[in-house]
Amino acid sequence: MQHVKVIKMTSEDVNGVFHIEELVHPKHHWSKNSFYNEVANNLASYYCIKDDNNNILAYIGSWQIIEEVHITTLAVHPNFRGLQLAQILLIQVLLNCYKKMVKYVTLEVRESNIPAITLYQKFLFESIGMRKNYYQDNGENAVIMFTQNIWYDTFKNNFNNIKSNINKVAVTYAE
After folding, report:
1. How far apart are CA 114 and CA 92, in angstroms?
2. Which of 20, 113, 152, 155 has the most other CB atoms within 10 Å of its CB?
3. CATH architecture of structural domain 3-172
C-alpha cells in the first residue's frame, strides 16, 4: 500500500502546487504569487499531500475567521485521483478545526462539479445558496455549501466514520 503524508505547505512547495493548479484549472488558475501570499498569511492554512518520493499529489487551502473556516481551494493531481486524497485533505482541515475550536466550515464549488459536490455532501456539507456568475473564466454559478456545527454528534460520528474508512493509501496527518 502506498504511503502518503499530509504536510503544512511552505514556499518550497509552491512550484509543485502550481503545477497541479495549471493541470486542474488550465484556463483560469491561481498565480504562483497567490500561493506565496497564502502560505505567508496568518489567517490561512495550506496543506499538501506528498508521496514517499516527496512528490506533491494534492493540496488544500483554508482561512479561519473566528469560529468558521472557509475552504479556498482543493485540487488533486489527475494521475492520483481515486486514492481518497481529497477526503484526506478535508480530514486534515477538520482535524485543525477541532484543535482550534472552530464550529463551521464553508466553501463555494462550481455548480457543474458534481464529483466535488458529492464529496462535500459525504462530509455533511449542505447547499445554502448560490453565487450567480461567480467564476470569472466562464460566469458559472457557485454553490455555497456549509456544515452544521462540527461538534454535533451526527457530524463527529460521520467524520470519524470517513476517517476510519480511508483505505486506499496509508496516511500520516500533519501535527
Report:
1. 22
2. 20
3. 3-Layer(aba) Sandwich (3.40)
